[in-house]
Amino acid sequence: MEEKEPKSTMLNAFFRIHDFLVEHSFMPIRRQLMDEINWEARLIAIKGGRGVGKTDFMLTRIKEIEAQWKAALEKEEEERRGRRKSKEPARPCLYVSMNDFYFTEHTLLEFAEEFVKAGGTYLFLDQLFKYPNWSRELKRCHSKFRNLHIVFCATPVMPIDEDNADLRGIVDTYNLRGFSFREYLNLQTGLRLQSYSLEDILAHHASISREICERVQPLKYFKAYLHHGYYPSYLESTCFEAELLKTMNGQLEVDVLMIKQIDVACLHKLRKLLQIMLREAPCALNVSSISEEIGLSRATTMNYIKYLKDSRLINLLYPENKTFPMKPTRVYMHNPNVAQINFTREVSPIDLYETYFYTAVHGAHKVNATDRSAMFIVDNKYYFDVREVQSSRDTIRPTAVAELELGRGNQMPLWLLGFLY
Questions:
Q1: pTM for the full model?
Q2: Which end of the chain is more exposed for a tag (fewer CB within 10 A), N or C?
Q3: Which helix (H) or strand (E) holds 209?
Q4: Which domains does the chain have, with CATH numbers?
Q5: At what angle are helices 9-24 and 54-79 packed, to 10 degrees?
């Protein structure tokens, strides 16, 4: 009988943490992105704002891989019953947080080599931005270990794809957003309502909304979603507002200051800029006035505004074919939950509805301002208005109406745009 091959003591320590986290991870509904990712790719980036559930998303994928692995082991045991195993089976997955102090003395390449030698094939990396030269090390791992699949979480401000010469052409990047209204509704009701393309909604919104309303009353849940439904943290027993403030401060202090390597003395000015956005948005952008209020040059203020956008705290609405460093037409908070976190101001309903429209649509579509009377143009061809209540007469262009349950003519329910993912 062959002796079992002992695993590295170091790997065993990481597997103990891995097992605890996988066992205690919680993703209450299956995110649609899980089925859109090509998991056969050798290098995958899961990019998303702080608080949208990237870690639990990876841990859920690990559960799926390990469930398949255990089922295969059980089948193998059935086939070889009565014979002894020659060695301990290799575990396929390992979740690792790069904030472990082990990586102050050892490289990711060394760690990956140990994992591959132990038979591992899927390495899931979190907190990667805390590791120096992370993109260069990923490239080396990708080049050296041909049978290793690496999945890593990325903050929105981390340079990936075309912005990173090390990873260009070798990484598949996917964006994990907060809960859509559809996902929130499924979570609250236990239903399994499907998503629809924008083209389907434009062409068939009346019949689609009717089918959904036969199963649930969406407007009964819509205002609650606008208040707290975008972030998974609302499911926890803690105060949602406190958790959201913690998330937003993390976006400033880590995603902006640390990754962008901005002097910590500038944090107060960044916070003040964000407060101005919370106070005013949605609004036109008066850069000169804002620069004077926070005591920065116009150029620096525009850079800071870009940082807030990149970290997914605000959205910038540009005219068609325009982008940074041009001045945007309007500024929106990134999602309706963030828009309502300023306790000194009550956001008007129409401001929330416009913010929701932008958040719901822009993830998979290009949203711009238009010089026509319409509020938005999507993908350079669909003109949209957003209204609080429906018009007694039909509108001349697609109009998303907040207090409308069933679609009629060109007037569609605003909530239905939350079914795009």
A1: 0.91
A2: N
A3: helix 198-213
A4: 9-78+88-175 (3.40.50), 180-229+335-421 (no CATH), 231-308 (no CATH)
A5: 110
